[in-house]
Design a protein that fits this description.
There is one protein chain. By secondary structure, the protein is an alpha/beta fold. It is 37% helix and 20% strand. It folds into two domains: 104 residues, Rossmann fold (3-Layer(aba) Sandwich), CATH 3.40.50.720; 205 residues, Vaccinia Virus protein VP39 (Rossmann fold, 3-Layer(aba) Sandwich). The protein contains 17 helices and 17 strands. α1 crosses α7 and α6 packs across α8. The longest helix is centred in the middle third of the chain and has 16 residues. The chain is globular.
Length: 389
């Protein structure tokens, strides 16, 4: 049976205790700890260390967001990374965000020894013993169905290694993916997958943030900037981030870029987003707590606009947002680039949702754009939009 094939590739060995033991052993060798990442991941790391009885060792946070320098987060100072060596002697930097390889390189270039840097990113995995393993066991048939639909070796390797990492918490499974992790500049724009596609209609950027995807898009498709193609439609939920996005759009001076201060959902209303204390949206997610944001469905707000590409990175709202775009997907069959890392169930629920909307149209691929459990993108490539077959 197909389900047995994926099950045979999974290491059914819960690594929670081993993971926590590694953390305890590492922390015990240092007087001071600095947590890199003054956001949700950093907050969860601090809370875990406090439960372990070593929270007092944490003396500060550090972050690359210069708006956070010399501020206070979780009652601790946030320090510019360039000042870390001046402020502490025997200290460990715990990296709580997913760009581990990038941050490690940055810190070593600042003179911090690799042995004094430790990757511990609790967001996205459970530290309750057996919880992740039991979740995967319960859903192995669904996961296997998706695994069987993935079109290439690269997709299958990423998919099963991320599942194995979730269970074992062993970094070796991430290390095996290092040669398959693409640059974030290519996120949503895999050259190999998109080579046979042209985008003459509108592009939807759901979760536009400060315009990072928009900038990458115009680098990949400069002809759009010069008048070819449709409009670029930005959706950003956070009011503060939306203002930054609008300033960037003004600098581009293009009538083809339209912006909407909405979260994308399956209906109109209000959602709550849990963000870090600075409200910058990094690591934000749909939650029962947090700030309220307006939401809309793409079907309703976009009407009869023809969409050729639909990208979603909307902090756990992707499944509901796809449901709110089902008429667009059925009618226009856009290329889909959907993040599937915000919730464990996204690994199977999002491809299932796409197939429920329209069956036998999309071929599925998975790509990874960061070391760790984030920036995992499911591509849905529609056969009917291919220019070469």
């Amino acid at each position: 049976m197909e389900s047995e094939k994926l099950a045979e590739l999974i290491e059914w060995s819960d690594g929670t205790e081993e993971c926590l033991d590694r953390l305890k052993k590492k922390v015990s060798a240092y007087e001071d700890i600095v947590i890199f990442g003054a956001g949700i991941g950093g907050r969860e790391t601090l809370e875990l260390l406090q439960r372990m009885g070593v929270g007092r060792k944490v003396k500060a946070f550090s972050d690359n967001n210069n708006n956070k320098f010399d501020t206070v987060y979780m009652e601790l100072p946030v320090i510019n990374p360039e000042r870390l060596r001046n402020g502490f002697k025997n200290f460990l930097v715990l990296i709580s965000i997913t760009a581990f390889d990038v941050i490690q390189k940055q810190l070593t270039e600042l003179g911090i020894d690799k042995s004094d840097i430790f990757y511990f990113q609790p967001a996205g995995i459970s530290l309750d013993k057996n919880q992740d393993m039991e979740f995967i066991k319960e859903n192995i048939s669904k996961l296997n169905t998706v695994y069987g639909k993935l079109e290439d070796y690269k997709s299958k390797l990423i998919y099963r290694n991320l599942l194995n990492y979730r269970i074992t918490k062993r970094e070796s499974y991430l290390m095996q993916l290092k040669d398959y992790i693409d640059s974030e500049a290519n996120q949503y724009f895999d050259k190999e997958l998109l080579a046979d596609y042209m985008f003459n209609d509108d592009f939807v950027d759901a979760g536009a943030y400060t315009g990072d995807t928009m900038e990458c898009f115009f680098e990949h498709y400069p002809e759009w900037k010069n008048g070819e193609g449709g409009s670029y439609l930005c959706f950003e939920a956070s009011e503060d981030i939306y203002k930054t996005l609008c300033r960037k759009i003004e600098l581009l001076n293009s009538e083809k870029i339209l912006s909407y201060n909405y979260a994308v959902w399956d209906n109109e209303g209000v959602l709550k987003f849990d963000t870090d204390s600075y409200g910058n949206g990094e690591g934000s997610r749909v939650s029962d707590r947090g700030s309220s944001v307006k939401c809309c469905s793409l079907d309703k707000i976009l009407g009869n606009r023809v969409i050729s590409f639909l990208k979603m990175d909307i902090e756990g709202a992707e499944k509901r947002a796809l449901l709110g775009a089902k008429e667009i997907i059925k009618r226009d069959k856009p290329v889909l680039a959907i993040c599937i890392y915000h919730k464990p169930e996204d690994f199977f629920e999002i491809p299932f949702e796409i197939e429920d909307i329209i069956s036998n149209e999309y071929k599925f691929y998975v790509r990874q754009y960061r070391y760790g459990q984030s920036e995992t993108v499911l591509y849905g490539m529609p056969e009917s939009r291919r220019t070469f077959r």
